[in-house]
TrEMBL record:
Residue stretches of biased makeup (Pro residues): 388-405
Lineage: Bacteria, Pseudomonadati, Pseudomonadota, Gammaproteobacteria, Pseudomonadales
The organism of origin for this protein: Azotobacter bryophylli
Region (Disordered): 388-412
Name recorded for this polypeptide: Type 4b pilus protein PilO2
Superkingdom of this protein's organism: Bacteria
One Pfam family of this chain: PAP_PilO
């Protein structure tokens, strides 16, 4: 049965009607659907070997000077459709006949108009799963009608017939757009080269790709080297800054500091004694009045003392500015419609440096008790510690987050009519730092407030 079918479907002589497709009546054409290319006009030929069919296909292709093929395998036949690169077919395109034969069944005939504004029709016919030679083509309406009539007049019974109404042969229209959607296409419908070698065009393309790859590789290696140099420079700069910070910390604290001191905020702040002495010394030097303007408040944050004065009587801003000249770091800033003035004085204090911390429960109990003995009401709250991540080095992945610190941070606030030099005298200063001292003149007395930080384990 199989040999009989092979004989019937073998390529007929060039002069026979079935060879008309490949004898020049319709040339190879490439159609486009959904962005994919479909080739028509293949020379379909049955292959007799079940295991060596590709060898057989290569031999036939050489005989016919064709180098591109589509292979169809069914239960009853192995069939090859041949075409040449010179006809515009390249590997990766689809065989139109193979794509339809893989979906419409074993026996059918289909014709359809390719575009509404052109007299171009396509025809594909399949019998017992094999494309009928000469029935994979594109032509005019007259050519395709003649082909259809020829096939319908033969002793062939097609299970399905898909024809446009203008052919007047019955059947039903084919939904070619739906059948050739990308998701319905299989790899086996694609064309492939018969030979393992590459064409000149493919060799040129491959050479161009290799050249581009080499350029990309060289560029990538240069980029890697540049990134490595950036990383080296960044590491050197980071180490230079670290050493400079350590040197400054040692100079301002009066002794050499360990490297980990840079990670401890208390090491880079003044001690309680230094902060109180430095701030109070400048605040005490502030004149109670300047050209008729009276002192109202002062604030010290360890680097700057700012003071506020209020205008009284007929005093003027010009008089205040003239009298304050040379006393402060900057010219006065006036606010409150010119009735208040702010002045500033710079301050440089020694840093405490690093030191071992006390246990949190002990440090908190001692600090609270000390302030309570001074008849003060402290407000103490824990502050979450956020350790900054190390900066990313250019060209390198982001460093992992640093481990959580082994110390805790508490904010301390309290107020007193006495200056901090009195109610903080003799306090345990390990891990305790001041952040701000403020004083306000209220009536005939002053009110002092402090904000500080307690660091403990």
């Amino acid at each position: 049965m199989k040999l009989s079918l092979l004989k019937r479907l073998r390529r007929p002589p060039r002069s026979s009607p079935l060879a008309e497709n490949n004898a020049g009546n319709s040339k190879v054409q490439v159609l486009s659907y959904h962005g994919n290319a479909f080739v028509t006009g293949l020379l379909w030929h049955p292959l007799g070997s079940l295991t060596g069919y590709m060898k057989e296909a290569r031999q036939f292709g050489r005989q016919e000077s064709m180098d591109i093929v589509a292979i169809r395998r069914t239960e009853s036949i192995i069939q090859a459709g041949f075409v040449s690169r010179s006809d515009g077919a390249v590997k990766g395109m689809y065989s139109l006949a193979a794509a339809l034969a893989g979906q419409l069944g074993k026996s059918w005939l289909a014709a359809w108009r390719i575009t509404p504004d052109e007299d171009r029709y396509a025809l594909v016919a399949v019998l017992k799963g094999a494309v009928i030679p000469g029935c994979d083509l594109v032509g005019t309406a007259e050519t395709i009608k003649r082909k259809v009539a020829q096939q319908l007049s033969r002793e062939i019974t097609f299970e399905e017939i898909f024809l446009p109404a203008e052919f007047e042969h019955g059947g039903k229209p084919i939904d070619i757009e739906q059948l050739l959607r990308p998701e319905r296409l299989k790899r086996e419908y694609r064309l492939r080269p018969l030979a393992f070698g590459l064409s000149r065009e493919e060799l040129l393309k491959l050479g161009a790709l290799a050249a581009l790859g080499l350029i990309a590789l060289v560029g990538f290696q240069r980029w890697q080297a540049h990134q490595a140099e950036l990383a080296r420079q960044a590491a050197l700069e980071a180490e230079r800054r670290r050493q400079a910070e350590l040197a400054e910390l040692a100079q301002r604290s009066g002794e050499t500091q360990p490297a980990q001191a840079l990670e401890h905020p208390w090491a880079k702040q003044p001690s309680v004694v230094a902060f109180v002495e430095g701030c109070n010394a400048l605040i005490d030097q502030l004149p109670p009045s300047i050209a008729g303007w009276l002192f109202s408040a002062a604030q010290c944050d360890g680097t700057l003392v700012s003071a506020n004065y209020k205008r009284t009587g007929n005093s003027t801003a010009a008089e205040f500015s003239q009298a304050a000249e040379g006393l402060f770091a900057e010219a006065p800033a006036f606010y409150d419609e010119g009735n208040s003035a702010a002045v500033k004085t710079n301050l440089v204090l020694p840093l405490a440096g690093d030191e071992p911390l006390r246990d949190a429960s002990t440090a908190l109990a001692d600090l609270t008790s000390w302030l309570q003995q001074q008849s003060l009401v402290p407000a103490i709250k824990e502050v979450p510690v956020a350790v900054p991540a190390p900066p990313a080095i250019p060209g390198q992945p982001a460093p992992p987050p640093p481990p959580p610190p082994d110390w805790k941070h508490f904010e301390v606030q309290t107020s007193s009519p006495l200056p901090p030099a009195l109610f903080l005298k003799g306090i345990e200063g390990r891990g305790l730092r001041l952040r701000e001292i403020t004083t306000q003149w209220q009536g005939h007395e002053s009110k002092w407030s402090i904000t500080g930080d307690l660091y403990a384990k």
